[in-house]
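Supplementary Note 3. Input sequence used for the single-chain structure prediction.
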Amino acid sequence: MPRPVLHPTDTMLDAARELLIQNGTRAATITAIAEASGVPVGSIYHRFGSLDTLIAKLWMRAVYRSQASFVAAMEHPDAIEAAVTAALSIVDFCGQHPSDARLLASFGREELIATTPAGVLADELAELNRPVERAVTTLTERLYGKNTRRALDRTMLAVFDLPYGATKRYLVGDRKLPSRLRHDLEVAVRAVLNSPL
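The predicted structure, written as discrete structure tokens, is reproduced below.
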């Protein structure tokens, strides 16, 4: 029988995330993460090997969480509804995972991951956005019958740029999203999708 995990990985990642979003990149040291999580420094090093690896894992966890419903939404049988649902999934993600959403809105990958770990983790980071890229390309073809640069730009405006822009200032300012934001975003996304290409 395997031994129970004494210090769950998510406990350490959650502590690092809160240090980052509350106090900035310099606040997330191994010592500070240990103090905030209640996990011994040695256990953190044993689990991750380095601070860079821990932060990379934290970033990837947030990205995977944000991508899950976004990519799934694009499987809707109607292309317009797939695009609208994908755009709205970004607002829903902000409600379901507010700290992860705030992390992604507040920091660029390069700010957090200064030194990309080598090996499997580097490969995983390099491939991180491929599922979204493939899903957007497929959706563009469904919407417009082609995946020209203009068609791809229109799709990205509808499903990513509008919802990201609509939520970012609230997330960065640590403010609650307005109750009508989801409705207003849907109106804007449908207007973009229904305008001539």
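The first helix runs from residue 9 to 23. The two ends are 60 Å apart (CA to CA).
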